[in-house]
Structure formats: C-alpha cells, structure tokens
C-alpha cells in the first residue's frame, strides 16, 4: 500500500517497478526506483520463514499441504497502510485480493467483452501471493522496487516451484526445474503477466487493485464516522488508466464527497480535487472520441 509522497511516486500497490521472469530475466524495470538501501539487512526465504516462526517444509514435497499452510498467512497478514491510522481490525492481504476477484467478475460490459475474465480473476487472486513471505511492504519500509520485486520473485519461485513442483499441481515441471504445464506454472505465468502489465487483462487488474483501495478508504472513514480522514490515499484514483474504471472510481469519490459534506468536515478537499481531475480526463477522452466519430 502506498504512502503519498509529494510528487506522487510510482510506488502504487501493484504498480510494476521491476519484474523478473521465472528464469531470472528482468522483464521490466523502473530505473529511478532501483537503488537498495545499504542499511537494509539481507533477505532470504529461510530468513522469512524463521521470522514468521515457520519450520522449513520438506524439500520438494509431494503434497500440496505445505503450500496451503503457507498461504494461510495471507489471511492473517494485515495491509500495512491502514495500521498507521490505528484501524483495527484492518483488512488482510487475502481480504483485499478476494474483493478484487469479485470486482473482476463485475467488469463493466464494455470492458468485459474485451477481456479474458477468468484469467483476470485468477490474476487478482495470485498477484499479492508473494506477500505471504514478503509481507505488505510500503514506501515507508525503505525497500526499493527492485529489492521488493526480488523478494516477491523468490517467494513465487518458492511457492510454485519448491512447494508445488513435485505435486499434482506442478505436473510436467520435473524436480529442480521451473517450467512445466501444471496449474502451478500456469498461475506463476499469470503473476508474471500482472507484473509486466502489458496485456489489457493485467492493466485492468492493476486498475482493480487501485479501485479496491479507494473503496476501502471510503469505507473505513464511514466506519469511524469521520473521525479518521484517509484522503491521502485518494490520489491513487488518479493512477487508474482505463476510462471505464475511472468512471467507477469517480462514483466512489462522489459518494465520499457527499459523506464528508454531511459530516461537515474537511476530508472532502483532497478527494474533490482528484474527482475533478478524473472528470476532466474522462471529458477530454469523450470529446476526442466524438471528433473521431464525426470525422
């Protein structure tokens, strides 16, 4: 989850900085975000397991149970951005991914007709799975995008290769290899697609990721009856790319604006500015489309 630095950084949830293929090839890199703080201790799978109080499972297990036990952590690991505001109980990583999956099933018809929705739903359910070991890192943790992606790539290799490689889900992979035809490799490739963000499906799921955050922001403010202003997260709506998703985000921001007006508090200001920018962007696009049709 992001904390909003003044220049609206690229550290948005799901915004790819560096993506690495299962062979270790860098697929995409944000050069400006690749420095690693020398103060950070080294990170490894073994270290993460020990920190979580988990015993290392048998090497190359033939059962899917070690994998299932590990991803249980997604149900109990909170999304860190909300904890800064002492929101308790706050959503977990799996809470976030679950509603993302539901949102993909409710895609606007004009988008749904262009998308492989089944693939989008799978993408929503696996995109943060590496956080079962990495945790929900935020910009305040001081971990660069390249280092964050390195950790998540190692985690996905561990989950889908080491833990599932010799199970029925890893059929066709073979011991000690990463490529195969099983369900594990299929999901690993969907995660890579999300990270590189080049397909319409991945762009849609990135937008869903941001939309779900904005929706949760508004809901926490309503839960706390205006005692918490989470307007610093509203800027995420401005990073949504697809017009249909911008319209959806605008509906949420309008609802939030009405809430704050009824509360007679100032939380609506940051939101109102972002809502205006979304309206302007949508209006410009529709005007251009109209000229194109008229021509």
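^ Assign residues to that structure.
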């Amino acid at each position: 989850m992001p904390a909003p630095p003044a220049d609206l950084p690229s550290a948005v949830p799901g915004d790819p900085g560096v993506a690495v293929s299962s062979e270790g090839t860098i697929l995409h890199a944000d050069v400006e975000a690749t420095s690693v703080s020398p103060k950070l201790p080294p990170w490894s799978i073994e270290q993460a397991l020990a920190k979580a109080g988990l015993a290392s499972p048998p090497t190359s297990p033939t059962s899917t149970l070690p994998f299932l036990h590990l991803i249980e952590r997604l149900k109990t690991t909170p999304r860190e951005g909300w904890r800064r505001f002492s929101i308790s109980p706050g959503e977990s990583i799996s809470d976030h991914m679950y509603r993302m999956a539901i949102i993909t099933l409710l895609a606007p018809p004009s988008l749904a007709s262009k998308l492989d929705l089944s693939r989008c739903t799978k993408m929503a359910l696996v995109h943060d799975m590496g956080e079962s070991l990495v945790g929900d890192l935020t910009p305040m943790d001081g971990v660069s995008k390249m280092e964050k992606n390195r950790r998540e790539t190692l985690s996905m290799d561990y989950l889908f290769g080491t833990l599932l490689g010799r199970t029925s889900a890893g059929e066709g992979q073979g011991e000690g290899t990463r490529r195969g035809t099983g369900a594990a490799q299929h999901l690993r490739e969907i995660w890579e697609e999300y990270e590189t963000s080049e397909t319409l499906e991945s762009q849609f799921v990135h937008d869903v990721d941001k939309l779900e955050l904005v929706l949760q922001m508004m809901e926490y403010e309503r839960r706390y009856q205006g005692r918490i202003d989470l307007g610093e997260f509203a800027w995420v709506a401005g990073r949504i790319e697809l017009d249909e998703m911008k319209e959806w985000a605008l509906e949420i921001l309008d609802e939030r604006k009405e809430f704050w007006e009824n509360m007679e508090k100032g939380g609506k200001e940051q939101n109102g500015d972002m809502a205006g920018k979304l309206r302007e962007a949508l209006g410009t696009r529709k005007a251009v489309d109209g000229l194109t049709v008229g021509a």
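Residues 17 and 30 are 5 Å apart (CA to CA).
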